[in-house]
Each structure stands twice: as C-alpha cells, then as structure tokens.
C-alpha cells in the first residue's frame, strides 16, 4: 500500500509494530526517489495514532490521506470465540478505524482543505462463514462507520470510503494457511472459490486504494469498493 501511494507522489508515513518491516518499506520507497518515514506504533493504541498524525503534519505539512489498514483474524465459531479474541478483533479491526478516522477528521478540518480517508474492510462484511464471527462482525462495523463519517463531513470536502478486498497474498493469509492441516490443499481450495482461480496480489488492492485517495475519486464517497476478482458475483 505504502509503495503504491508513494509511486503516485504521496509523502508516506508508515505505522506499525514491526520495525524491521517498517524500515524496509520506507527504504524501498526512498530508493525509488520518494518521501517516506516510519513511525513505530500500535494502531490498537489511540495515542500511537495521534502521534503518527502529528509526525505526518510536522514532517510533511499536512495530513491529506488517511488509510486505516489493520486486521486481526481468528478462526472460531461464536461459542468457541474467547472474550480475549473478541476484544483483540474489536481493537484491531474496528476501534483502530474509529480512532484513525476521528483524528484524521480533526486534522483535516483544522487544515480546511478536505482529504480522503480509506478504511480497509473485507468481502467478509458482505457475506460470512460459520467460523469467522468476530472478523465478520468487526469488518461489517467498518463499513457502517465509513458511511457515517462520509455523511458527516462531505460538505467540508472530506471523503471516507471502505476498501473491501478478497483474499490476497499477505502475511495474514500465509499465517492462516499455516494453521491448516494441509496448507497446499487449503490454498487450492481458496483459489477455487474465485472465478479467476487465483489469489489476489497486493498490488490489486493497493491500486484500488490509490484510486480512492486520488482526486479522480472526488465523487466517490461513503461507498465500499470491492476488489475480489468476482467472488461476490457468484451465487454458488
């Protein structure tokens, strides 16, 4: 996501707990001739989000794009879901989006020139599986919050949209496959779900995020952009 935004001219502040990965991303952006800094932080902690926004405004002058992009996934039916797993899902998948959107709005209103907020939801917000109760509930909440934010601040030029990807190559997807008794078969089963018989690439999702962030999407507000290779178009 960060590399795609930077390639289109954005100055990027990347936030995460994994410093090695964060600095690796920032270095790749700098090597390509673009601006980026890494802030080590945890988006499940409100003060870390506030600090990252402050760094962005201090280093680059303003916050124009906010992408709330975090996820925690647990495989469990409702009766198997622990309170700890529920709380972790809520904080990572929904509370982080609430805090990120809230403090982005505060900054953008103060700047007085609008902005774009992108909240990563999921195709799971449109459908469900029996063993993803916490994930489905929290990602559905992201879509509802996104619509409310869009309505509240549209007149001030602040847009807010949800990005809803299907399965794509990522550490979270790899971690899920690793929990399966036969990861190779599990991957093939997932690929079979999609009309294209493939798992999405990170760039497929990143390009959609870039569009939502751009001026070309000025008329796109309060919507949920699905990037799923046609998964939701299937009826069976």
Automatic annotation (TrEMBL):
GO molecular function list: oxidoreductase activity
Protein origin, superkingdom: Bacteria
SUPFAM superfamilies: NAD(P)-binding Rossmann-fold domains
Keywords: Oxidoreductase
Gene3D superfamilies: NAD(P)-binding Rossmann-like Domain
A Pfam family hit: adh_short_C2
Family (UniProt): Belongs to the short-chain dehydrogenases/reductases (SDR) family.
Protein name, entry field: Short chain dehydrogenase
Organismal lineage: Bacteria, Bacillati, Actinomycetota, Actinomycetes, Mycobacteriales
